Known about the structure:
Belongs to the azoreductase type 1 family. By secondary structure, this protein is α/β, with parallel strands linked by helices.
Amino acid sequence: MPGLLHLDASARSRSLSRRLGARFADRWRAAHPDAPYVHRDLAADPVPFIGEAWTELCDEVMRRGLTEPRRYAEVVGTPAQRAAWAVVAPLLDELLAADVVLVATPMYNFSVPAALKAWIDQVTFPRMSLAGTRFIVVCARGGAYQPGTPRAAVEHATTYLRDFFDGHFAVTEVDVVAAELVNSLVDPRLADRRAEHEASLVAAEAEVDRLAARAVVAA
């Protein structure tokens, strides 16, 4: 039975990225009412940043050439490493159990929130493959950063996530949905672009629905 891991990273409790993520999750869960579902709010319940003990675990995984994540616990030795592993283990279990990982995030200062990066760092080890897992990224951006726009080159949120999931985890299915110009709702300088934001949101919602329907068919 397929499982969904749903991550929220926005500092706002009523953010647009949360709204889009919930839209996907609601449709997926309606189609799989008995399937495993885990929602982790990385802003409300932050994952700690990695420390030196985590780096020791990472080094030992490399030394032993371990490629199976479920064997990583074998490298734990010192009390500090046990404490580090106590943080990693439940996060890694949730990730490995998921067939679909939904990442709902804003773009902050051209990149992903620190809360999301902290989660990524905790669950990532050398030569770790998640091939076969599907990643859905839904993102809200304050300005316009889509390909072909003047600021496209500084969009380091969805491009980073796509490149990382593909390049490190060997994931071939990474779908990205982004709503643009969210700041037009609050910034007077962008007020004349509110119609663009609204069109972008409508398109994002339609794409979320399409991806959710596709996930149901694939399952």
